Amino acid sequence: MSTPPVLVASDLDRTLIYSAGALALAGPDERAPRLLCVEVYEHKPLSYVTEHAAHLLAELKSAAVFVPATTRTRAQYQRIRLPGPPSRFAICANGGHVLVDGVSDPDWAGAVAARIAGECAPLDEVRTHLRTTADPRWLRKERTAEDLFAYLVVERELLPEEWVKELAAWAEPRGWTVSLQGRKIYAVPEPLTKSAAVREIARRTGARLTLAAGDSLLDADLLLAADEAWRPGHGELAEAGWRAPGTEVLAERGVLAGEEILRRFLARATR
Length: 271
Known about the structure:
single chain; 271 residues; alpha/beta; five-stranded parallel β-sheet; four-stranded antiparallel β-sheet; 9 helices; 34% helix; 26% strand; globular
């Protein structure tokens, strides 16, 4: 009988892949790592990994079941071209969609939607609250994703911290959670989680060990559900001082943190 696989589930943005503004490169320019573009949007390069990270990821895909686990919509995820062969499984919309060979599993999507409808306030109610309380001085865009959750794009420098806290307090009794990531504020139904989708993929693959990484509060449930996990030295979890048993806090920040996470994944998967 074949050995059960190792499952590696990782957030993407600011965990494995980085925009130019999130690279956090330090030291002399001539010592900066070479970068590989992994996403183009509107004919412009958008996201990067280091060249060494690209090699590590390709090797990891040969050693484990690698599952991208992102809050991105399916269309946003499909812009990304990660090194190595395509992943058979991927998680989009924070767990709202499990992709199997690039196609959303309808049974999973239907079950998630039914649970949200039964446990949470409607999306339209949340959107109305966001629109009526957000200040046009710092609000740039209001969007929904896959008809599952809402988010705002804001001018972070002008955003009052108290507004985010008040939004979280309003959302919690309605079954929604709030997360601030860079210039985006997410309002997400509590049943919509990456961890539930990862557990389903682990069941389907018969994985014996689950590894995970992430940087935001929306990744906390994913890290807690894994057997072993890592978070970078930057991001929402770092700012909150979030720690948990089984999750290692890395010192690295920016794109070099992504490289280190892949190094840890590969070492553990091949142990």
